[in-house]
Amino acid sequence: MFFARTPGYVIDIPTDYHDLDSVVSMSSTTFGETNVDLGVLRDAYRRNPYSHICLKDTDDNLCGFLDFFLLAPDTFDAFVEGTTEEGLFTSKDILPYEEYAAQNRIYLGAIVAYNSNSKAENGRAAQTMLYAFARLMLEKYGVAEGHVWQGYACGYSPEGVTLLERMGFTRVNDGADRRDKYPLYTKTLNKDDAEALIRTCERFSQRNCKLTLR
């Protein structure tokens, strides 16, 4: 009897700076013009290396990514109101990691898993990145000590909408009046939420991914 081998994954946080080229390529393929340009992404990484999760295989190939941003208050207000969109963010709109303690809102930009041969494997890859995200929020964003975040995200695809709803995000609007035309979702992210997400995702993630968080 033949058993398919589950791929081994690697996540290093902070990720390698040079992974951003592959992130932009994968993001452009997936989202097109909603994508943040490479220059802004590089500046965002310099300001906050704890805002990018890159999932790679054991041959160092990018298999997926998850990114999120601390935004300047005026920019965040405009994004929630729908008068700006991710593709218009500039470097000055991204806050440095050191300012996280003074913030209570976080924008989840994208979670992309790409395996052209297996939708099921894409789901497992997404779970692995969400596990890493929950660990990151606990260990680097004050959640373990009681910091509470209000997370915002857009449903950029049917799969994205399904994932957000499974995570407990609620729809704020359908996007009709937003500049980007995508539905906006929100969810409180606290210690209980992070620990629940870890419990949901850890069985596969711990067995099949080497996660290093520095």
**What is the count of helical runs?**
6
Count of discrete domains: 1
CATH-wise, what's the superfamily?
Gcn5-related N-acetyltransferase (GNAT)
The main β sheet shows up as: 8 strands, mixed
What does the radius of gyration come to? Answer: 16 Å
The helix fraction, in percent, is 25-40%
CATH class: Alpha Beta
Say how many strands there are: 8
Q: What is the spatial order of strands in the main beta sheet?
A: 6-7-5-4-3-2-1-8
Q: List segments where confidence is low: pLDDT < 50 over at least 5 consecutive residues.
A: 1-5
CATH architecture: 3-Layer(aba) Sandwich
**What proportion strand?**
15-25%
* Silhouette: globular
Give the CA-CA distance, first to last residue.
41 Å
Task: Return the string of H and E elements.
Answer: EHHEEHEHEHEEHE
Secondary-structure-derived class: alpha+beta
Under CATH, the topology is which? Aminopeptidase
Quote the average pLDDT.
91
Protein name: N-acetyltransferase domain-containing protein
Organism: Blastochloris viridis (Rhodopseudomonas viridis)
Main features:
alpha+beta, Aminopeptidase, 214 residues, 23% strand, 6 helices
